[in-house]
């Protein structure tokens, strides 16, 4: 079984849209949003995937979400069938942290490939968890977003050296860093140097849940990307649809 986030109570967050971030930005994609996360970013825009009633981990909004309204369980074959019924042949597994359910995802992707073998499969991960052996060869692209100090997560949980080294050595992996202040880039430079990550595989993305915030940060982030050979990525879905589920 897979535990998914919901768009409305009882309705799994499986939808077709455009990839809004990172190396595949703008591409038509089918999304499956998984529930649960091992980290707790205080600015997380999908806190409904992990900050359930009784969870006191800090978050800017200080909201707690009823688990029964924000989680739904489906078997892997049902998820695969729902994905296959949507037009885009690029699947983005997101969350939460999808790799917490890696074994079940392997079964789902295998079932999906039997229905539509042309699917390109991407997974969004915070970089602290490894893909299990059954899932790893089924993934075409890892979108790795290590969480910096400003996320509020302890480095011992968020920045696991052996995991970052493994992703850095994997040509399928692209790195996306969420940036709130110009000073955050110093930590990115340190991680890039420590793990020998090619700058061309690095994307800087402004933190923000509205267009005004994103644009204000984009102005100075563009200069930082150009100076360091990094890519810039916006949050396209925020500009198009706002901070809403199922987009």
From TrEMBL:
Mg(2+) binds at residue 46. Its cofactor is [4Fe-4S] cluster; S-adenosyl-L-methionine; Mg(2+). Its EC number is 4.3.99.3. InterPro entries: 7-CO-7-deazaguanine_synth-like (IPR024924), Aldolase_TIM (IPR013785), rSAM (IPR007197), rSAM_sf (IPR058240). SUPFAM superfamilies: Radical SAM enzymes. Pfam families: Radical_SAM (PF04055). HAMAP family: QueE (MF_00917). Homodimer. This is 7-carboxy-7-deazaguanine synthase.
């Amino acid at each position: 079984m897979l535990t998914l986030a919901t768009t409305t109570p009882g309705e799994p967050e499986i939808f077709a849209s455009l990839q809004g971030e990172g190396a595949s930005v703008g591409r038509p994609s089918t999304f499956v949003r998984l529930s649960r996360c091992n980290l707790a970013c205080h600015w997380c825009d999908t806190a409904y995937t992990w900050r359930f009633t009784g969870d006191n981990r800090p978050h800017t909004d200080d909201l707690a979400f009823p688990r029964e309204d924000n989680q739904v369980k489906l078997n892997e074959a049902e998820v695969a069938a729902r994905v296959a019924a949507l037009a885009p042949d690029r699947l983005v597994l997101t969350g939460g942290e999808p790799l917490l359910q890696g074994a079940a995802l392997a079964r789902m992707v295998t079932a999906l490939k039997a229905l539509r073998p042309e699917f390109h499969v991407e997974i969004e991960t915070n970089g602290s968890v490894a893909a299990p052996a059954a899932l790893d060869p089924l993934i075409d692209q890892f979108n790795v977003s290590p969480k910096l100090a400003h996320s509020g997560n302890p480095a011992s949980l968020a920045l696991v050296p052996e995991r970052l080294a493994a992703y850095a050595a994997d040509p399928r992996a692209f790195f996306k860093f969420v940036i709130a202040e110009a000073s955050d880039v110093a930590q990115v430079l340190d991680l890039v140097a420590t793990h020998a990550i090619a700058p061309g595989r690095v994307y800087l993305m402004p933190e923000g849940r509205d267009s005004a915030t994103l644009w204000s940060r984009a102005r100075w982030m563009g200069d930082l990307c150009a100076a360091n050979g990094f890519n810039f990525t916006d949050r396209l879905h925020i500009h198009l649809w706002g901070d809403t589920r199922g987009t």
